[in-house]
Amino acid sequence: MNSVAGINIARFIxxxxxxVVICNHIDFxxxxxxxxxxxxxxxxxxxxxxxxxxxxxxxxxxxxDMFSDSGGVHAAAAVCxxxxxxxxxxxxxxxxxxxxxxxxxxxDIGSLITYISLxxxxxxxxxxxxxxxxxxxxxxxxxxxxxxxIFTIILSVLIIILFSRNRK
Length: 168
Known about the structure:
With 168 residues, the chain is mainly alpha-helical. The protein is globular, with a radius of gyration of 15 Å.
């Protein structure tokens, strides 16, 4: 097993544990819940096969669902995020993505925040829409999406910056 696979397995397990042990128990004001497990999907190696990312994202979401007793909404939202990831990477990083030369540890902070923000909003919109599954509660869905997204984006960017080695 190479070091990239080992790092990804460790990241998968660590983020899953942080999510189910700490973050699932944060329910600030009824609307703010961080979902940091999606960092795994954001940081998954770009050159890996896309089907592997979709499958591993499904597994990650399914595990969060099993611990959260949430009936598959995390699995669905995680797969949607993994599916949208190439578009997000292209819109946030442009030519760096075209040339497959993105290194998250050395990208500029603006592109990183754009990438994390777009992905988080997509994930949370799908997650809370499926969780509520009632169009008459659209304001509640939007409120949960907005506040949880802000908190998740801040935590995700901080975690990525703290744990990347050679940040500018």
